[in-house]
Amino acid sequence: MDKRKSLMGSKPISNPLSVAGKLAAMGAAGVLGAIGAKFLGRFIVNKVHDDFLKILTSDLYNENIWEAVSSTMRIGPQVVLETELRSDRGKLVERPMGPVNQFPSLDDLKFNFAQINTLPTEVDTEIDFSVTIGKYAKKPLRLNQFLMLAPMAYGVALSKPVKIALAKACSAAGVAYHTGGGAPLMEIIDYADKVIFQYGRGNWPIPQEVLLKCHAVEIQLGQGAYGGVGFLMRSNEVNEQLRKAFNIPKGQDLITRSRQPEVQSPEDLKKLVDKLRNITDGVPIGVKIAAGKYLEADLFWICNSGADFVVVDGAEAATKGSPPILQDDFGVPTVFAVDRAAKWMEKHGFKDRVSLIACGRIRTPGDALKVKALGADACQVGSIALVALSHNQVHKPLPFEPPTSLAWYGEAYADQFDIETGARSLQNFFESCKLEMAEGIRALGKTSLSQVCRDDLMTTNEMYARALNIPMVYDAFDPMAVQPQKIKRLKL
């Protein structure tokens, strides 16, 4: 038998050289084909592009596709989208994660640099971050962190794994954990070290053991993204798991009332403060409000109620979902709300007795240090904490679902959130912010968070200069007006 015959039959094997030649020819044809396809593709794309550009630059506006772009730019993409949503169903639109409009923000504030007139602090100097909330309370809340967690509710907003991760991260980083106004589950609270309990406006019972576990209580009268408006979750939207968590009977709606049920007049607030102080045996009792036109009048009633702290939520604050009108068109921006509150409390003798906590679009260590300089004793962070918490996990719902579907209760990707990864990421964020704030304090030539004040600020915005009573960056500094004796000695 011919050795070149196939083992599977009697057909001779082709000449190897001829096979190689055929393969080479096929490869060359493939390369030429690919080159040809490339140039053909380029030709087609170029032809389509040129024809489209010619039409775009010659059609009048009543026929021109660009009219859609210019009208959208004029109206605004966000407004166009929300108009479509309103038109589609005729129902209330609820936007998550806060306003998109540009408010006057903390970005226009700048800090001083200590150089030689004031010397910077040495790099190895430890910065004192001690914070006391409710210093005259029987049991003051003592922390070593300026940042606190903002209230975010379980069930009506966040999932249980996300709440557990928040509690674990706060405990590890020395940050005060906030329960939010949802279902008060002890199995979540037990993961936290320092706990602020939100005494909300809901129609569900509050377990006594939860109040006894907390280190401070925050009476919620309103919030920046919602004001004092209430909301309703129909009983058919409340599953058995949530019903058990909220401890409400089947058929009952979940209702957050517009008013605090126990505060039907300004005078009633003192009764509630006293009641909660007695129940908790003296932990700090505070009040949270959205900053409005009559901020000082609200502060009058709060400070005279015996409250130990007040949380002022600026107009930029976020929530799981609220009507765009309340986010975009109501409230006082955080920078002015904190300034007004601090000035009023100082003027009327409450600054030392009642702690001021700032909230509303505080995103960075710089933002936090700026509200401290304006007079805040601490600040709450919410949206940015969720961003940090989702580090290395945000890819899970993308590109088919929004990133928030990883955090919201009952959403498609909520069960894919990893607690330990989230807790570690948020802990890192809190610790990094503290280190960065320490560098800023050293750059000011100071050694303590408590030393940071309004004198450290200047601004690039003339409205801010007038409203906040701080200098513009272009205002010349006259050392003779501030340090005449030092300057005279130097001249001698």
Give an overview of the whole structure.
- This protein is an alpha/beta fold and 492 residues long.
- The chain has a single domain (106-468), classed as Aldolase class I (TIM Barrel).
- Helix content is 40%, strand content 11%.
- The chain is built from 17 helices and 14 strands.
- The protein has helices spanning 16-56, 66-75, 77-89, 160-173, 186-189, 208-213, 240-246, 268-279, 295-303, 324-328, 334-347, 365-374, 383-389, 419-443, 462-468, 479-482, 484-491; strands at residues 109-111, 131-133, 141-143, 147-149, 177-178, 195-199, 216-220, 231-233, 254-256, 285-290, 309-313, 355-359, 378-381, 457-459.
- The strands form 4 sheets. Strands 4-13-12-11-10-7-6-5 form an 8-stranded parallel beta sheet. A two-stranded antiparallel sheet has the order 1-14.
- Helix 6 links the parallel strand 6 and strand 7.
- Helix 4 runs parallel beside helix 14 (419-443) and helix 9 packs across helix 11 (334-347).
- The protein starts with 15 loop residues before the first helix and ends with a helix.
